[in-house]
Design brief:
With 517 residues, the protein is of the alpha/beta class. It folds into 2 domains: 18-153 and 355-499, FAD/NAD(P)-binding domain, CATH 3.50.50; 169-219 and 263-348, FAD/NAD(P)-binding domain (3-Layer(bba) Sandwich), CATH 3.50.50. Helix content is 29%, strand content 17%. It has 13 helices and 21 strands. The two termini are 12 Å apart. It binds 3-acetylpyridine adenine dinucleotide. Residues 66-69, 152, 158, 160, 173, 190-196, 213, 215-216, 302, 325, 349-351, 464 line the site of 3-acetylpyridine adenine dinucleotide. 3-acetylpyridine adenine dinucleotide is lined by residues 66-69, 152, 158, 160, 173, 190-196, 213, 215-216, 302, 325, 349-351, 464.
């Protein structure tokens, strides 16, 4: 769909429904706002529960927080940044990038901070969504909604017996307490995932002692992080094509890794071999190597990228504990063999409450349908973006949109292009409802679930990608190129388009299944 700079600019009025309500001012919400505006859709507001933009990169400020995807690829193609300081950036620099986009594209005035959305209700008679907020905020109506609340936005403490009994300091990786001084303290870290491997080297340098409680070791690959020198930055600034070429090179490099990470192929053995060589080169003690060797296929859980995790584990003040945690006591952690380990503080790098089943917020769609109920066994959508029964509603990072091998931002950008085109269609044609067809959604999901069967994620390990029943509602089983291509165009034939003046009795004559696409 073409850009619509010619569309008459609609301005927000308090009493008039918004054209678009965006939930969340993280990477996805800000990106959606930018592209909507660039396409001439200006009557939108972003509702953000916090007082700052940035989402996961505002929340994850633990020491060592960084992205394990190169910054040139972990950024939007429509907002290139020649000034990334390193190959991989820290969370502060990424947050700065998001804030600079807000300023550069003039998104700030459209953000309503401290607006926590508590519910979305669709009115089929008017084709409007109503957004409810926590106490004290007036409800808002909108013709369309973009749910950009993020999959990793709810930090969760693990359900370990006795967690409330522990009397020391408890810190979750995504809610770091910067006032707490770890100097000279006895500290535990629970978890050895992507957050933990970044936190542990920093803590080991500061605390008196660190015990790392590992339930499952992950595959760790080396990380080559280089400073971007002034000449390169100047080149990117003066000849933007060079930066695009660098981004493309990173994209295709990651894309090729899919063959060993998404599917279990001979290349998976190569990935495992590289990780084992990395382990062997950094850990000399065979027993420790054994404790750190995964027993699942590389890719099944998220790959870890670190050069300083293994060295940190071997420092004199660090100890790896592989006994399962039985419970927390008032003074520390009791492991299954009966030992109580006492700590001043426990860091939980245990991940997030990820919405794989149920809805991220209560959403009531057409005919009173409740998304949380329909998704109770696992979430599904059409191309991860639209859901039948929930017209004019679009998801970012929706079901089965996660990459295991490439940048989430590439996927997110494709979603944003798609949903902003769909919203443009809704507004241009003055539709009451734009709703994905059930048959198209079912066929899409049947294909996705079939293809997932042969991926590494479904090969038998437990991870946040799967529900408790083993349903994979998280990952996209394919190359990034395929994911992006399927979202390149809004095919009208995939949707039911209901004109504004169509019969309004709920359930009656819900428009025409247009087959033009
Ligand atoms: O969380 P995780 P995370 N008792 O779920 C363990 C993104 N991210 O915050 O493997 C004991 O990966 C759990 O053990 P096990 C990225 O997408 C990105 O580290 O379940 N241990 C595991 O070791 C990532 O995937 C970057 O057996 C318990 C750990 O806690 C996602 O965020 C950086 C436990 C949780 O690992 C989440 O990463 C950081 C219990 N009861 C994060 N419960 C980038 O660089 C859980 N664990 C882009």
């Amino acid at each position: 769909m073409s850009e619509r700079s010619e569309r008459p600019v609609r301005t927000a009025a308090a009493s008039k429904p918004l054209d678009v309500a965006i939930i969340g001012a993280g990477f996805a919400g800000i990106g959606a706002a930018i592209r909507l505006r660039q396409k001439g859709i200006t009557d939108f507001a972003i509702f953000e529960r916090d007082t700052r933009v940035g989402g996961t990169w505002r929340d994850n400020t633990y020491p060592g927080a960084a992205c394990d995807i190169p910054s040139r690829l972990y950024s939007y193609a429509f907002a290139p940044n020649p000034d990334w300081s390193h190959t991989y950036s820290g969370s502060g620099e990424i947050l700065g990038y998001i804030e600079s986009m807000v300023a550069e594209f003039g998104i700030g005035p459209s953000i309503r901070f401290e607006h926590t959305v508590t519910g979305l209700d669709f009115d089929e008679m008017t084709g409007l969504w109503e957004l409810s907020f926590t106490k004290g905020r007036r409800k808002v109506k909108a013709r369309s909604v973009v749910v950009a609340s993020g999959p990793l936005s709810n930090a969760s403490l693990p359900n370990i017996p006795g967690i409330d009994d522990y009397e020391g300091h408890k810190i979750h990786s995504a809610r770091w307490d910067h006032d707490y001084d770890f100097t000279g303290k006895k500290v535990a870290v629970v978890g050895t995932g992507a957050s933990a491997v970044q936190i542990i080297p920093e803590l080991v340098d500061k605390a008196a002692s660190v015990k790392v409680f590992q339930r499952t070791p992950g595959w760790v690959l080396p990380r080559v992080n280089r400073r971007t020198n002034a000449v390169t930055r100047q080149l990117y600034r003066q000849a933007p094509i060079t930066q695009k070429l660098a981004r493309d090179a990173w994209f295709w490099g990651h894309e090729s890794v899919a063959l060993g990470v998404v599917w279990n192929t001979p290349l998976t053995r190569v990935v495992e071999r590289v990780a084992l060589l990395h382990l062997r080169s950094q850990v000399s003690d065979p027993w420790m190597r054994r404790q750190l060797t995964p027993d699942f296929r590389a890719g099944c859980k998220r790959l870890l990228i670190s050069n300083d995790y293994y060295p940190a584990l071997q420092k004199d003040n660090c100890k790896l504990v592989t006994w399962p945690i039985a419970q927390l006591s008032p003074r520390g952690i009791r492991t299954a063999e009966g030992i109580e380990h006492q700590f001043d503080a426990i860091v939980f790098a245990t991940g997030f409450d990820i919405s794989k089943a149920g809805a991220p917020i209560p959403i009531t769609g057409r005919d009173g349908r409740v998304l949380g109920d329909e998704w109770s066994r696992g979430a599904y959508a059409f191309k991860s973006v639209a859901v039948e029964g929930y017209p004019n509603l679009f998801l970012t990072f929706g079901p089965n949109s996660g990459p295991g091998h490439n940048s989430a931002l590439v996927y997110m950008e494709a979603q944003i292009e798609y949903l902003s085109d769909a919203i443009g269609l809704l507004l241009d044609r003055d539709l009451r409802m734009l709703e994905v067809r059930r048959d198209r959604q079912d066929a899409y999901n049947a294909r996705i679930q079939r293809r997932l069967e042969s991926t590494t994620w479904n090969s038998g390990c437990s991870s946040w990608y799967l529900t408790e029943d083993g349903f994979n509602a998280t990952m996209y089983p394919g190359f990034g190129t395929q994911y992006v291509r399927q979202l390149a165009r809004v095919e009208l034939g995939d949707y039911v388009l209901t004109p504004r003046d169509a019969a309004r009795a709920p359930g009656a004559d819900r428009g025409i299944a247009v087959s033009l696409g």
